[in-house]
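Can't paste images in this forum, so I'm doing it all in text. The chain is below; anyone willing to post the predicted structure tokens underneath?
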Amino acid sequence: MSPETAFSIPTPAGSRHIGGDAPCFVIAEVGTNWHFGDSNDDSVARQMIELAAEAGCDAVKFQTYRPETVYVANPGESDYLSAAGIRRSILDVIRERMMPADMLPGLAEHARACALVFMSSCFSLEDFALVDPLTPIHKMASYEITLYPLIEAIARSGKPMIMSTGAAAPQDVAWAVDCYRAAGGTELSILQCTASYPAPDEAMNLRALAALGREFGAVPGLSDHSPHALHAPFAAVALGAKVIEKHFTVDKSGPGPDHFNSIMPDELAAMVRGIRAIEAMLGDGVKKVEPIEEELHAFARRRVQAIRDIAAGEALVVGQNIAILRPGKRVPGAHPHDLPALSGQRVSREIATGDGVTLADLAP
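Text version of the structure:
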């Protein structure tokens, strides 16, 4: 089967097209930002689902993992988290924020009730078994791009995959795509992503997103880790992104690895509004007189107009009785490219000051 560059997924509101001419698919990434100290309290998670819906997002995404299937037993500290003041083993950091498996179905149902697609990145085959019944589309996190058993499981599910590419070399991406398609996967989106938290402007490489889409026959997009709420998503959509993923939080000072580099709900809403406005601005790429321009097309575009009353039989002379002027609401004259054919010729009728002069007005 040939690679697909657009696909559809079922959503609470009906079938949703991703890619092609469809609007950008916007994912509100909660990740572990729902966790504020009690792993059994899903109230913030539910609140964030509601906020994502209010912001106009298409999907809300969490993370489903088991620490022992992610890192080795003694991974040490992350430098970027240490710089942010979290000086503990990464294993302890993620263990504290692990979402209980029994929380997933309720959150999925709440997302559906809010007309959102429920998503959760899974990090092992066990996680996949929990998430698969709850979502129409799977997200592969950047660092799992070499976990081919999970890639193959997603492919065999028959559901589309969105794959982030942070810290991935081109050969990593190509290998992962080959694994996915060899296992029967066809519907794919590939996201440009820079694995830095925050990602500096000069490392975003947004032009790569379109190149990834072309090279791998996939829907292009962006997983944005930049500190800006709007810059990268807006630029990405202008460059052709059809999927945007962005972390958000309800408290940038909250505990954990992602709050400080996430945007707030009002910024999330502004991002979605801006994306929709940019999509409208992009248009169809064909230069034409837009319907909204018709009035000024007639009113203000210069034509050949009479600058005084012209008598029947009078010869036309530029600067004496005709000039290239805006007609306003007077009868528009000939296009200025007809001026050489009009100059020196006599007219067959009287023409009032301000009215247009055309080739049809010339005496035989």
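Residues 265-282 form the longest helix (18 residues). The two ends are 68 Å apart (CA to CA).
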